[in-house]
Amino acid sequence: MSVDESQDSATGAPARHTGTAAGELEGLAEQSRALAAGSVTSTALVRRSLERIEATQGTVNAFRRVRPEAALTEAAEADRRLAAGERLPLLGVPVAVKDDTDVAGEPTAFGCAGEFPPKERDSEVVRRLRAAGAVIVGKTNACELGQWPFTEGPAFGNTCNPWNLAHTPGGSSGGSAAAVAAGLVAAALGTDGAGSVRIPAAWSHLVGIKPQRGRISTWPDPEAFQGITGIGPLARTVEDAALLLDVAAGNHAGDLHRPPAIAAHEAVRRDPGRLRIALSWKAATTFTRKPLHPDVRAAVTDVARTLVRLGHFVEEAEPDYGLVGLAFVPRATVGVGEWAARVPDRSLLDRRTRGSARLGRLLSGPVLRRARAAERRQQQRVGALFGPYDVLLTPTTATPPPRIGTLAKMSGWRTDQAMIAACPYAWPWNVLGWPGVSVPAGFSADGLPLGAQLLGPAHGEPRLISLAAQLEAELRWYEHRPPAHPARVDGTVVSRGE
């Protein structure tokens, strides 16, 4: 059965596919509770995850590195600790991290080709995952240095969207999104420098949280990409995303940004109250065309109507973005240049990457310092919206997910134009450093996932999470899933076991 042929006759949305036998555990929190109760073993969960990864590498291609032996050894140790009565938030639960995240004994290639040496130490966020008992099954694919909203490249091939393998799951955290959407792991971490968690969340029917800058440590980097990039969770439910956020959050002594702690998981069950919500269709100025796809407008309008039914006040209002893009470009390109300098063989880099790195060298120094100095004024300008309003609602992207290969062979300038046209709504919040949550907003006429974005001011994750959880209880988006373990037979996408 083709993914886009499987439709719910009542709604036109893809039909629900659990893809599991009765009683199987799919959620992060659900797995954690079952492990603590002794109704399942870590070894069984990790083995199932590894089997699913292996079964889908030829189709979904979510992982750059898989750790079968190490993960099973860690699972056996988790089972021993559980049997001894130890309890931790994720003890024995399999999770995944992105290819830009250091895991001891594994290379960190960040989507690049070439031979990279294994890392000697875990990054701070992986250290925190391990401290909570999680088992890292592998590292997921990302486009080269996280620059684009697709996950394709000569180093690893194409990562495909489990809802329709002809389309991208987004990027740059496309591997993490695909892994969660396909049921390979219950949740995964991505990184977000211009929407790279929120965009694949939208295009893979997931919840994706971009936390406040510094909420999750980027160490061994004091900050990532001149402060615009942060780490965030991808999951099917708000509860799972919030649980992973709480576990991963915290700082290293060397971090440049250290926001006050929050309790994300507690916010899931908290009533958000009656909120004033601004609905915005306006994208920040980029001097390029950014037409909004009618299916996206319709889907986000439906989310707004749901919020009204839930008792919130919603009206159209636009933030004053000013020329925030002038602050984004220097920080992004300097960040690309800093990462490119770490690559063992820079001749293997994409021509667009080399061009961005050259631009970053030109924009470093005084231009970069001015861009960073403008941040406070930009926060004040955009933050004026959060006097009359509590939350900003926007589309996550302007279009449904493109087909594989749409952007991969374009020139640098044409790639930038196409990228901005498809994804104009996420990146300003990276400049501001503030939190945002992408939630599923339904499907296009072709059955492709779409997302809506809940945005807040500094340190606003708890309110956004509470609101997202309230929406989830009403819309029950987690009930819709793509076929499990998609495979390709004679050019047709089918589901194993159907």
Automatic annotation (TrEMBL):
Q: Which GO terms describe its molecular function?
A: amidase activity
Keywords, in A-Z order: Hydrolase
- The keyword Hydrolase is assigned to this record: yes
Output the Pfam families linked to this UniProt entry.
Amidase
Q: Which domain of life is it from?
A: Bacteria
Region Disordered, annotated ranges:
1-24
Ranges of residues in domain Amidase? 45-464
Tell whether Hydrolase is among the UniProt keywords.
Answer: yes
> What EC number(s) are associated with this protein in UniProt?
3.5.1.4
In terms of PANTHER family, this protein maps to: GLUTAMYL-TRNA(GLN) AMIDOTRANSFERASE SUBUNIT A, MITOCHONDRIAL, TRANSAMIDASE
Similarity section? Belongs to the amidase family.
The identity of this protein, by name, is Amidase
Q: Which organism is it from?
A: Streptomyces endophytica
